[in-house]
Amino acid sequence: MPELGHEDLCVLFHAGELPPDEAAAFEKHLPSCPACREALEALRGASQAAAMVLPEPPKGLGALAAAAVLLQDRPRSLRPLGFALAFAALALALYVASPKREEHSLKWTNGIESDLARVETDLGRLSQEIALGADPAELDEDLDGLEESARSLKRQLSRS
Amino acid sequence: MRQDDEELCRRLKAGDPEAFKGLVRDYERPLYAYLCSLLRDPAAAEDAFSEVLMKVWKALPSYRDEGRLQAWLFTIAHRVCLDRFELAKRREESLDSEQGAALRESLASAERGPEREAADGEIRSRLEAAIAGLPEEQRQVLLLKEYGGLTFAEIAGLLGCPLSTALSRMRYAALKLRGSLEGLDA
Known about the structure:
The complex is a heterodimer. By secondary structure, chain A is an all-alpha fold. Chain A has seven helices and no strands. Chain B folds into two domains: 1-84, RNA polymerase sigma factor, region 2, helix turn helix motif (Rna Polymerase Sigma Factor, Chain: A); 115-186, Winged helix-like DNA-binding domain superfamily/Winged helix DNA-binding domain (Arc Repressor Mutant, subunit A, Orthogonal Bundle). In chain B, α3 crosses α4 (69-94).
């Protein structure tokens, strides 16, 4: 630490930033120095004043702002989901057009269709919630649900 | 760097959304308080808060583990405020027509809104006015200390001034506040 005068040490003392030995030495100096006592009193008053007018953030500001940042950055993590959906749609179209489709089980087709329907519903709900400024925690749950539906689709397609 | 900061940094740099949400939860109040007091406008502070978070998230991968994460966060917040001051100054310069004068008056009226004035107590109003009335350099140090919780060494580093300068700015701010609030039975 550079060489500091008492008036500077006074500020560090008030902030609790002096090493214990220097703090003890400063405490010994205080009774004999009216200027340091006045400065210390003013510093305590300033801390109190700042605490009294501490501006409080609007409720939910941090959660909403964090969700907005993460959603804006989401395309990176949604990219695999986009590919999964595109792949699923292409696979389904090929399957429907395939002359061998009669050989595939009806159960498999129903599974794909219900998963696609679920993804579509989830996407619709998510868009609506974002538009209405929903709770970010709920958005996260919906995004997780969406990703789970996409994974389910991928699993079914890979089994085929 | 503290061990908990190190672990948090590792998770943040890895792009862990939960770590980011935790960081925002931890610093929401001091960050907003700092932005709001420095910008002196709650709406601008909310906007700046989002901007700071976006910059933090984008800068995290290149963040070097030097010093406290808290000091890094407030450095970004401080720069966002300076950018806004610069922008406001440029706008102010362009608002020199008659229409500009009318707009300035309407903005000033909105800031002094009757609801706000009625809701604020006299003491609070005087304290806010006293802090707002401090010279800019002193106010920055006071707010970085009281709301940001930065050490004076960190404040000096952030502002690019010697430690003794940061300390004397704080002392002058405190003495000036004391003078402004004389007679106030708080």
